[in-house]
Amino acid sequence: MIIQDYKVFVFVKPSMQNKLMSSRDLLLNICFEFLYNTGQYSQVVLLIIGFEHIIPASTAAKFLLQNTQIMFNVYLAFFLSIVPIGKNSSLTDATKILDFAAVGDIFFGRSGKKFGLDHPFRYVKKYFQDKDIVAGNLETPFSLKRYRNRRKPRQCKYKKCSPDEARYARNHMLTFWGRPRGAEILKKAGFTILGTANNHTFDQGKKGLLETISILEKSGLGVTGSGKILEKAWKPHIINKNGIKVGIISVTTLYNFPPPKKGAFYAYSPFRGNYKYLPPVITKLKKQVDFAVLMLHFGEEYKNTAFRFEKNLMDLLAKAGLDLLIGSHPHVLRGIQIKGKMIAFWSLGNFLFDNTWKSRKYSGIATLRFVKKGKLKRMEKIKFIPVVLNGPSAKDKKYGKLPRPAGKKWSRIINRKVRRYSRTFKNIGKLKIDGNHLNVILP
Questions:
Q1: pLDDT in tens, 396-409
Q2: Global pTM?
Q3: Which of 4, 184, 291, 409 has the smallest count of CB within 10 Å of its CB?
């Protein structure tokens, strides 16, 4: 058995097994002390040969069990020497993989009201457990307290309001706020990175945005799309794992509160200006990574249509080297586009939201595998997994807003809708219904 894709090759000659058997613990300790001290403990390639043996409960054994795929009956490798692999070795071209999942809009509360969530992802977190990267668009600032629109609005639906009062009432309902515990909920569900560039980024002002970033980072979550300085907001979050580099950047084309001029920033690009700004950003990112991912907050709310000026942008992003686009904002599903080597999920809809009326309850999870072998890089096992926001919450069994896997009936409805929205891209033949999900076939 070979654990592939790394740079250190530990081996033993079968003829030496008997001689080494009596001193196995010493040899194990020496080898792993070497690996720890040289910082190469995460770069081990084991060629397992010889006879079956149960590894003792030692530091070396724990290392093996935690850092390789060897399970239960382990073929024990006795170590004669440690030989670095040369640049021309075939093992340096071994296949590397990185599993990825992404969802749409995530919401934790509006106007100071609790969304009443304890374990909101209980029905869908199984799709995240085996993934290296799980991304989502966080539409709710997390802060210790509300900093904006704190005064309760006048009930203009029942009482006469001035234009200013009516405007405040509307903005109050559209100003989101979530408690810090939301970050812990996301982390436990399996999320690894959140895009924070969207029209609700500045809902709690400068202080609220900075607290959001701090709370997410302290919870061990990656953040992209915002920062204390403008350069940080536009800086991609780069994941270097399993020998693969993936760069993720979050950008919004819309805002509710204008972009700040100092103290806190988010990555904002006006839509018509995207033709000028975004392609160079992607080109620069692609030079740093194996795969470039853009989380783009764009489009018109509740519209499934793909407009010509949006298609033009996709053409430019594909030419710039973008591998994957994850769209958000419309709160409904949109089509899936294959453009050359780029795949674009135009909108994955709501994933956790209180607005689940009609088509707004249809959602999905995009999953795929990044694969690298030598200079060859590709995406495989690309799927759209239908989700419907009608799962009961813990507090009220009739309250149907939590995401859960769509059954046979809902999957058929959602998959057909996504295929219909994708016709405008003329790649519907590359979207194959397979059971309850859609397979996306790249050329």
A1: 554 468 899 999 99
A2: 0.78
A3: 409
